[in-house]
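Running log. JK asked me to keep both predictions on one page so they can be read side by side. First protein, sequence followed by its tokens:
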Amino acid sequence: MLVLRQTIRHISALVPDQWKRHLKTALLEEPDTEASLRRMQQLAFNPVVVIDVGAYIGEWTSCFKRIFPSARVLMVLPTCANPQVQCTLNPQDRPSKGLFLLP
């Protein structure tokens, strides 16, 4: 199983994101966050504010903002010294895009 995981990581960079989502849901029966959020949108879910606890690099928030661009997001991180967060989320863009980072 370890060899399989290592192989998947190496190949992952070559596979488009859309295919990755399909493989995860079809083969690994892993829930698809984007599909779930889109389904919620179809059911008239329209959040004004959400809280992303454990935001890390902002992957969930980025997906959420693509589907609900007008919603505001409070991102809560367990540590403020994560260099990846600083790269992924531009501090000047956060308030204008409704993103607020709380370390």
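And the second, directly underneath as requested:
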Amino acid sequence: MNVSSSHLPPGLTIADTAVQDAGFVAVALYFAQLGGRKVDAAMFGLRPTRVGRAVWLVVVLIVGFVVFSVIWTSVFHAEQGEAASNSSARMKRRRCWCSAPR
């Protein structure tokens, strides 16, 4: 397996992100319990919700995202893969500019 700073396997990136997320949660829980009170979800602004409402909101958000994407694509005439190649070319130009001798 080739692991270097320029080539990280996707699985390692996902595992690294999961470890960082767990660390953030652990630190938040630790500092919340320092006050001497019992730590519960309400201290972090979380509250229970009905499953039906949650599913309905997820469906609405997905449909809204698809509608927004279709409108965005039609307004700006973006073809599939065009945005990725344009941003890649911009990044290459920036790298060349940043590394050019002055």
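Observation for JK regarding the second prediction: Helices lie at 10-33, 51-76, 82-99.
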